[in-house]
Amino acid sequence: xxxxxxxxxxxxxxxxGRAFEREGWRVDVLDDGQVAMAEGLATVYDVAVxxxxxxxxxxxxxxxxxxxxxxxxxxxxxxxxDELNDRVQGLDAGADDYLAKPFDVPELVARVRALKRRSDxxxxxxxTVGELALDLTHxxxxxxxxxxxxxxxxxxxxxxxxxxCGRVVPKESIVSTLSSWESDxxxxxxxxxxxxxxxxxxxxxxxxxxxRGFGYVLEPAAADxxxx
Amino acid sequence: xxxRPHGPSLRxxxxxxxxxxxAMGMAxxxxxxxxxxxxxxxxxxxxxxxxxxxxLAARVLWSDRGPLLDTSRQAMEEITWxxxxxxxxxxxxxxxYVLAGDGAIPIPTWHRDSVNQPTxxxxxxxxxxxxxxxxxxxxxxxxxxxxxxxxxxTRKRAEAMRDIQIGIVLPSLALGALTFALLAWGIRRGxxxxxxxxxxxxxxxxxxxxxxxxxxxxxxxxxLIERINAxxxxxxxxxxxxxxxxxxxxxxxxxxxAGIRVLVQDLQxxxxxxxxxxxxxxxxxxxxxxxxxxxRMARLIGQLLSLARSETALGIDTVGVVDDLAAxxxxxxxxxxxxxxxxGRVCTLEAPAQPVGARAHPLWLGEVVxxxxxxxxxxxxxxxxxxxxxxxxxxxxxxxxxxxxGVGVSSDQIDRLFEPFWRxxxxxxxxxGGTGLGLAIAREITERMGGTLTxxxxxxxxxxxxxxALAA
Lengths: 228, 472
Hints:
The complex is a heterodimer. By secondary structure, chain A is α/β, with parallel strands linked by helices. Chain A has helices at residues 10-22, 33-42, 59-68, 84-92, 105-119, 152-163, 171-178, 187-202, and strands at residues 2-6, 26-30, 47-51, 75-79, 97-100, 126-129, 132-135, 140-143, 146-148, 168-169, 206-211, 215-220. In chain A, the strands form 3 sheets. Chain A has a 5-stranded parallel beta sheet with strand order 2-1-3-4-5, sandwiched between helices. In chain A, strands 6-7-8-9 form a 4-stranded antiparallel beta sheet, with helices on one face. A 3-stranded antiparallel beta sheet of chain A has the order 10-12-11. In chain A, a hairpin with a 2-residue loop joins strand 8 (140-143) and strand 9 (146-148). In chain B, strand 11 and strand 12 (398-404) form a beta hairpin. Chain B is rod-shaped and about 175 Å long. The interface between A and B is medium-sized, with 33 and 34 residues.
């Protein structure tokens, strides 16, 4: 994979460049907006990582120039500004993703990888948490490759929680997702369903935690507490 | 008002010279009225006296026994006598002997000179001042002469004089009083817009630098208000320049801090394979500390930015209504709730079943809740509760509370909680990674949204509870 990194801060471009190379990617590093304008069009890159604050031409100008000349590669903007306006402006100008400084290198790498995957047209149709995998097309749940039998409603709940693994899923989202299955679905029945799913998932290396008032969090069980 | 040094009041400056002019005018008017009344009254009454004297003189009969005065009833009726007054008449001969009438009547020594011409004189009669007329007539043979004297008390003319004076002085006094009352009222009314401006400024939020309204200000005061508005604009400009400087400085710091973080993470990656022995390598804590320092620096920069940005973002008019506080809290708190979960803390949200709305800005209310939760997770106890509370009575504020059951702070420190960079006096808070800005920012933002942020701790509350009160 060939990546264009446009960043004028020496420390940042060195660190990010090395991280990308460690991933086995080929990185071209530029530190000037004017040069980046031409270079982005001259070479075909898989992904461009573009800083907004650049000498001579700022990142937004570079991005607009690329897009106006038909450059289609996914662009991730790096910026010291994280205001909503800047974000919207950046995405409007044709950016595909946005990361505010300071960031963690693993997150940047993950986002670049996701951009590449998306531009390749690959859509994840399997969600995995730990050793649990949910096939979205066939609506099938497997644990260590073996099928786990569940009702469609439970699969729907599992999908909702697994797709937002590690995040808080509010009760309201569960109600609105599951009420399509059952017309008068109340918040109380959410607890029943989650309770049932939690018991089943406990044996499959996945925990569902309740954060009272906030919602539910699905996570792979911690490595030091293996499923019983 | 009185203890502040200031120039004489406008009312005084306007009215004082006017009072002098008016008083002098009044004095002249009164003196004039006095003179006018005296001469007018005297002229009228003297004429009456002269007529009487002439009429009496016509009644003098020259008989063989000497001059006689016809005092028959018919004759006397022609002369109108005011009986209430001390009026009297007499006929005297050339030597001053009273031939008829009142013997006590005063006789001027020069009565013989008043031939053909009734002459006025002043004297006293029975102890009261009188005015009289002497008229001397000659006998037909021109060999004898008698003088007719008529006196009249001055009471009537004094009364007439007084009436005239009152008629002149009273209306001008009343007019003067009315003029001053109107002037004072006019000045008061004219200055009212200035008082309104003062009241408006007094009622303003400290960060409200909007220009003052010129609409009702009197033309004379417009330059002053305009200068004040220019000053306000200047202050606002200076403030915004300063704010922008803070924002710019924070932005500029972000890139190098990001660079440090990236390089430290790179170093960790690079060094990890080199260490194959047992135990923790010596450089591990160094890198760990470097990372946490850069992390803290990044957070401090973020806080400074959010402080600078909240000032621009939360103007007077930008605070709207949040329909569902619980939803805002839930969304804003998520990263911290996950952190609490990782740390094995219990985080709970309590909210009424129905959505609760309040005057706030969703993004910034989230920032406040975030700061309070971060504070609770950093310094607080194992159990953290976020609560959306409806007011007990109508018109009371809606509250969002963030509380924990930790050690809290003592009552003498609770006021210092919101001071920027105050870090508490407990030794175990030194290395917590906090920036010391969170609570100060939380309070600042809450107040910008028109709310209040207060804290209660031990002994009143077992732990510490922060209350964001927002207008319903």
